[in-house]
């Protein structure tokens, strides 16, 4: 058999997943937290996450929150390290660890924690907007 059994371009199907009620609410909250538009976050997710993972994003987010994501590290928790790199893998773990390291260096240099976390979220935002 030489014909495709499924669509090669899954953008429209991924988009339909992301605009479902529960997904839409979560994406709007994540976009607000990161300071990106909903459309930019959707585009990034469509390009970087497969359909099976997209369908499970709300459950993965709830599981990460229920598991106490980064409970032992308040800076990582404020940045959303586990949520953005493991729960909803928007950023590779290694890249997130580099961002967290830079934030902690800023804090050690005397920067206030909220300011350092905001700078870290700006770095996460930069990765998404590339």
Shape call: elongated
| CATH second-level architecture | Orthogonal Bundle
Gyration radius, rounded: 16 Å
**Helix segment tally:** 9
| SSE ordering | HHHHHHHHH
Q: Could you name the ranges where pLDDT drops below 50 across 5 or more consecutive residues? A: none
CATH class: Mainly Alpha
Compute the average pLDDT: 89
Q: Any idea how many domains? A: 1
CATH topology annotation: Hypothetical protein MTH393
Largest sheet: none
List how many beta strands DSSP finds.
0
Helix content: over 70%
Alpha carbon gap, first and last residue: 39 Å
Structural class: mainly alpha
Give an overview in words:
With 130 residues, the chain is an all-alpha fold. Helix content is 72%, strand content 0%. The chain contains nine helices and no strands. Helix 8 runs antiparallel to helix 9. The mean pLDDT is 89.
Characteristic key phrases:
single chain; 130 residues; mainly alpha; Hypothetical protein MTH393; 9 helices; 72% helix; elongated
Write the layout of secondary structure elements.
Blueprint: H1 11-18, H2 21-34, H3 38-48, H4 51-55, H5 57-66, H6 74-79, H7 81-87, H8 93-108, H9 113-129
Helix pairs in contact: 2-3, 5-7, 7-8, 8-9
Entry summary:
The protein is mainly α. 72% of the residues lie in helices and 0% in strands.
């Amino acid at each position: 058999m030489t014909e495709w059994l499924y669509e090669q371009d899954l953008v429209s199907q991924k988009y339909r997943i992301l605009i479902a009620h529960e997904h839409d609410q979560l994406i709007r909250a994540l976009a607000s937290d990161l300071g990106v538009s909903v459309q930019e976050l959707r585009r990034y997710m469509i390009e970087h996450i497969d359909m099976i993972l997209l369908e499970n994003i709300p459950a993965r987010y709830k599981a990460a929150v229920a598991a106490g994501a980064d409970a032992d590290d308040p800076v990582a928790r404020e940045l959303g390290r586990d949520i953005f790199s493991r729960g909803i893998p928007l950023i590779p773990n290694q890249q997130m660890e580099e961002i967290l390291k830079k934030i902690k260096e800023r804090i050690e240099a005397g920067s206030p924690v909220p300011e350092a976390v905001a700078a870290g979220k700006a770095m996460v935002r930069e990765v998404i907007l590339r």
